[in-house]
TrEMBL record:
Residues 7-120 form the Thiamine pyrophosphate enzyme N-terminal TPP-binding domain. Residues 396-517 form the Thiamine pyrophosphate enzyme TPP-binding domain. This is 2-succinyl-5-enolpyruvyl-6-hydroxy-3-cyclohexene-1-carboxylate synthase. GO terms for molecular function: 2-succinyl-5-enolpyruvyl-6-hydroxy-3-cyclohexene-1-carboxylic-acid synthase activity; magnesium ion binding; manganese ion binding; thiamine pyrophosphate binding. The gene is menD. Its cofactor is thiamine diphosphate; Mg(2+); Mn(2+). It comes from Microlunatus kandeliicorticis. Homodimer.
Amino acid sequence: MNTATSAARLVVDQLVGWGVTDAVLAPGSRSAPLAYALETADRRGQLRLHVRIDERGAGFLALGLARATGRCVPVVTTSGTAAANLHPAVLEARHSGVPLLVVTADRPTALRDRGANQTTTQNGLYAAAVRAEAQLDAADQDPAGWRHQLARLVTAAQGLRTRTPGPVHLNLGLVEPLLPPADDLDGPGPAVAGPAVVQAARPDPPEVLPAGPPTVVLVGDARPAVGAAAVALARASGLPLLAEPSSNARVAEAVAGYRLLLGDDRPEAVRRRIERVIMVGHPTLSRPVTRLLGRSDVELVVVADGAEWVDPGARAARVCDAVRLDGPGDPGWLAAWRDADRALRPRVEAVLAGAGVTGPAVAERVWRSSGADDVLVAGSSNPIRDLDLAGPHPAPPEVHANRGLAGIDGTLSTAIGIALGTGRPTTALVGDLTFLHDVTALAVGPAEPRPDLRIVVVNDDGGSIFATLEQGGPDHAGPFERVFGTPHHADLGAICAGFGVPFRRATTLDELDAVLATPPRGLEVVEVPLDRTRRRDLDAALRALVR
């Protein structure tokens, strides 16, 4: 067994011992020892290997798998620009708290800083985006020392001691020969003890708050367990529940029209009476929420289960692991929110019904067609905001979204990872630019695990979200279409045919309902064409409901 093979097997054996169940590989020459070790582990049933040709997509696939399973998922690349292409996924993992282990193969130390082929400075490549990093060189193998370094990395990725998971980086210098001997293709790694047992840090008991002030529970992007805890708090305390789509707290009693109600400028608006906000998760979707969190007359209580927390307005009065009230909230306060929501809902539905096939109408159909056993992935930009207009759901699906940095990149790869990680029927609702941005995610090799994933593409031929912002106003109409609208005229059906992915087009809501009536089987794409020119007027009509 040569040095590189021994190093790779040691790393993979330790990761399997830590409970790693999935790994993602983007092929390369310098990373060949890791490729062989991972393939052997896959054949032995020790983990499930996913091979992708695009490193950026591979990173987001690993992120989706880690988001779905809650386990650390390694993504392995060769050296050079391959490692740099993981940076977007690393950033999203950092800001979403997802346990991602980046393993980059590198030249040995002696070949660095000499102009060697495909060699750059990979130590510290991801800078402050990673929670821990380590440099190991196969030429200097110390099995006990490597065991410790891998334990440190996985512990940091999982947030076992800090309760703040995130990405970590292992840069592995590998020396030639890079291939295992022909008579030892899948032999054992070096003998070394299994992983250390690391006790996870435990949260503090809930902080007790007085029940008195008019309080709302505001839940942003959150893991299912966190969303469920927020729902339990709102129910036990009798408080209004304002939940974003990816909060996993958007249950039947949540205030569906909270975003519009928080923008209500009328003197009698219920939002004017808010005195305290209990914030859970990472709210990102709307300016009314941001303004609420920045109000100086509102006490902000942040519930955060780790070392970092969200406080965009820098107004947090207290930060705690969990809270409970010392008594029930005012029933009249909860009734006021529910009455306002019930009065608003038919008016919202009337506006949407009169607008025909729109983003919000499509989102409503996708939301309604998903049940408690399903998974929904919401793309950034308009799709997740359109879901935010959907009505109450008696048994909502599990919802995921890349809201750490709210980019559109890697969404299809993330959705594939989530579908594979959960093993459940999954629907992704994305815009056309999001689809095109990550279209190589459709290149799933014939030997690779394939998800049951339906990708619904709301295609308005460009960036309609900008039409709802200041740059979409008439005063800036001249350059808008070219630099913000960005029409592409892409033929999505032809693109899918090129990848061998089943494709359908739904031009009416009834056609869409017929497609959604059956669960996805395998990977498929459904396009819903829209007219982008009406988007700004639709948003204005919705906002006018509370003016």
